[in-house]
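Thread amino acids onto this structure.
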């Protein structure tokens, strides 16, 4: 990085980076195929004295996303042939936790057209993906010289916030419980109650020896947290029986430990947001006691089970 003296904003100057598509992964496993070859341009942020080689911000990728340099001090990719390496699980020797933090910053804040936001994301990305090299190049104080003096405090605050957000991130988990109750006046009837987290969860539930009363089907999709579903028993024989419910649930889980990688021989490596990690979990419930069919004496009380 060249030492700045006065900062001049880029206002999205356009310089082309030719993207050649090759299906290879650099330092990781390819999880998704690269996209088609198109021209990419310099994205939002600031340049020192209008020089694209001293850019603090992002680069516009062929698919419309914004990517960021992860090699502080490396030559600019501007004017060079860049390879789309697809989605990879590892860059710069980072741990899975650091890869998740990198994807979090890129996916939550990286796809922006705002110069200050892009500048702050670039600073956060450098400190996560290669902090030793970043500090050796001068760190925040050095690169902020590329931005207007009036914007530097705002950019610093954003970058500090993104780093804190990434450091505090705990991957989401999902869970569900189901409870079956029996109508004491009619053992053919009952209710299935569902509790699921996060609130965005949805599942498919299948009943054994019963159907949902409103659809006459043993299966229901799109069951959400708080569902209170009437059921009707379908006994397999004249003997006492029990109803069972099984459910498979899913929900968005947040950023996974991967990024979208763009490589340039002898120059910067660029990364954009990767893919998310979906949550998948299950639950089951069964009657706590037999359901009685006509002709069988009904006991005065039956317990309720929480699955």
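Threaded sequence (307 positions):
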């Amino acid at each position: 990085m060249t030492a700045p003296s006065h900062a001049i904003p880029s206002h999205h100057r356009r310089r082309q980076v030719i993207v050649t598509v090759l299906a290879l992964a650099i330092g990781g496993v390819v999880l998704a195929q690269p996209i088609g070859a198109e021209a990419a341009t310099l994205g939002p942020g600031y340049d020192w004295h209008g020089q694209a080689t001293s850019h603090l911000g992002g680069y516009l990728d062929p698919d419309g996303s914004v990517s960021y340099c992860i090699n502080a001090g490396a030559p600019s990719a501007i004017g060079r042939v860049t390879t789309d390496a697809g989605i990879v699980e590892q860059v710069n020797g980072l741990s899975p936790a650091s890869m998740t933090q990198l994807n979090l910053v890129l996916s939550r804040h990286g796809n922006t057209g705002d110069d200050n936001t892009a500048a702050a994301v670039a600073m956060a990305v450098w400190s996560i993906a290669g902090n030793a090299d970043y500090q050796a190049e001068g760190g925040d104080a050095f690169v902020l010289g590329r931005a207007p003096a009036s914007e530097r405090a705002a950019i610093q605050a954003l970058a500090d916030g993104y780093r804190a957000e990434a450091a505090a991130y705990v991957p989401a988990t999902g869970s569900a419980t189901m409870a079956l109750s029996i109508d004491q006046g009619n053992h053919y009837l009952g209710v299935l109650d569902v509790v699921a987290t996060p609130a965005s969860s949805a599942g498919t539930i299948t009943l054994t020896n019963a159907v949902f009363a409103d659809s006459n089907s043993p299966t229901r999709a799109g069951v959400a947290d708080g569902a209170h579903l009437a059921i009707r028993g379908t006994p397999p024989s004249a003997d006492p029986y029990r109803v069972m419910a099984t459910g498979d649930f899913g929900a968005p889980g947040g950023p996974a430990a991967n990024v979208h990688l763009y490589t340039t021989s002898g120059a910067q490596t660029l990364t954009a947001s990767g893919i998310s990690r979906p949550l998948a979990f299950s639950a089951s419930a069964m009657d706590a006691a037999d359901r009685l069919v006509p002709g069988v004496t009904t006991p005065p009380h039956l317990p309720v089970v929480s699955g």
